[in-house]
Recover the amino acids of this structure.
């Protein structure tokens, strides 16, 4: 059944389909309100076709204008099929991180709602989120033919992680289907089966080449821990000092702060994997330290203002020194007075000592030994005796 589009009245009941250029609208009226369903088709002129026998499909709905509304043409009706909210593939992804492939425990890194119209778009969306949890691929040397390590030696891969190498770092786990799927094996059929499901995405931080805990310990000891250690196994003070000086050379032209803050920055970098150090050295301080640093002024007005401020501080410092110098001068004058008093006291003591010496000399000269009659009598009574003991 076909009718002209202009022949539809607000009283008619039923369902019709409007074909116009690249879009056609299926419309149904109920209680004075008309709903429009949009599907893609091609036609040369607008006609009305009965849509009562159409198959049930997912359709976007939009109000058709009533008699009181004014629309200049069908172009005023935007087809809902152009809505960006509707995507062909949609599911939730639980992101789990593992240090090595055989690790039983894991660290959950969040849940991502993935929606896109293509397989490439879905994989890109997941890679962009998971890339922050990936360090770098590790390769191992010196293996025997059976695959067992004889002298396990770990080294970083020369290639940086990229979307093309996603199979090394990601694996999809469909728990309902009990399957592990590599990103390169994901197809549109796979994504159709994941609609409205929650899929687990396992991220291998150092790639899937790190299979066992033994290999991870080799990576940790050879690549992650600092080369220069103290007795406790931490980064040595010499290494931290070198790192601090490197940061000052790299950022000293545009950042300024106290020495302790540079040390905190160097200590933070030393706790990160060695592969990230070059990049972290070239970056700004981390968020928890950035507030401790100030930018070096470049604009002439700012430099002049800073110079005036520095001169004012220097003047205040000089005033403090002037006060101290005045106090020292007063102390020196007091010391000179004290020395003069002590000099006079010494002269008085010397004079007193000289007087006492003269008095003692005079007294010694006036006191002499003289013989009298009694002393002569005693002397006459003294006789010489023969020394019989020393013969």
């Amino acid at each position: 059944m076909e009718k002209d589009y202009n022949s539809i009245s607000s009283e008619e009941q039923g369902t019709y389909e409007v074909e116009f250029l690249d879009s056609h609208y299926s419309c149904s009226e109920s209680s004075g309100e008309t709903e429009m369903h949009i599907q893609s088709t091609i036609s040369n002129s607008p006609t009305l076709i009965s849509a009562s026998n159409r198959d049930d499909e997912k359709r976007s709905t939009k109000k058709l204008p009533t008699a009181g509304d004014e629309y200049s043409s069908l172009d005023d009706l935007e087809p809902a099929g152009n809505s960006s909210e509707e995507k062909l593939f949609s599911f939730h992804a639980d992101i789990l991180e593992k240090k090595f492939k055989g690790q039983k425990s894991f660290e959950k890194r969040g849940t991502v709602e993935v929606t896109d119209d293509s397989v490439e778009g879905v994989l890109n969306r997941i890679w962009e989120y998971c890339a922050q949890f990936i360090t770098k691929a590790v390769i191992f040397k010196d293996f025997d033919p059976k695959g067992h390590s004889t002298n396990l030696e770990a080294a970083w891969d020369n290639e940086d992680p990229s979307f093309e190498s996603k199979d090394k770092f990601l694996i999809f786990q469909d728990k309902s289907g009990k399957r592990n799927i590599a990103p390169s094996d994901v197809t549109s059929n796979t994504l159709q089966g994941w609609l409205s499901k929650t899929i687990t995405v396992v991220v291998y931080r150092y790639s899937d080449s790190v299979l066992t805990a033994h290999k991870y310990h080799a990576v940790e000891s050879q690549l992650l821990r600092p080369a220069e250690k103290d007795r406790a196994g931490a980064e040595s003070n010499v290494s931290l000092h070198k790192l601090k000086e490197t940061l000052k050379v790299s950022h000293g032209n545009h950042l300024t702060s106290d020495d302790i803050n540079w040390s905190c920055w160097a200590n933070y970098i030393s706790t990160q994997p060695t592969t990230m150090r070059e990049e972290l050295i070239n970056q700004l301080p981390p968020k928890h330290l950035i507030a401790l640093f100030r930018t070096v002024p470049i604009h002439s007005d700012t430099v002049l203002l800073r110079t005036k401020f520095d001169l004012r501080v220097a003047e205040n410092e000089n005033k403090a020194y002037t006060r101290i110098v005045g106090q020292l001068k007063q102390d020196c004058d007091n010391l000179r007075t004290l020395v003069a008093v002590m000099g006079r006291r010494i002269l008085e003591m010397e004079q007193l000592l000289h007087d006492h010496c003269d008095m003692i000399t005079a007294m010694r000269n006036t006191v002499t030994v003289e013989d009298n009659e009694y002393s002569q009598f005693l002397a006459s009574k003294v006789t010489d005796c023969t020394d019989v003991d020393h013969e």
Summary: The radius of gyration is 51 Å. The chain is about 35% helix and 20% strand.
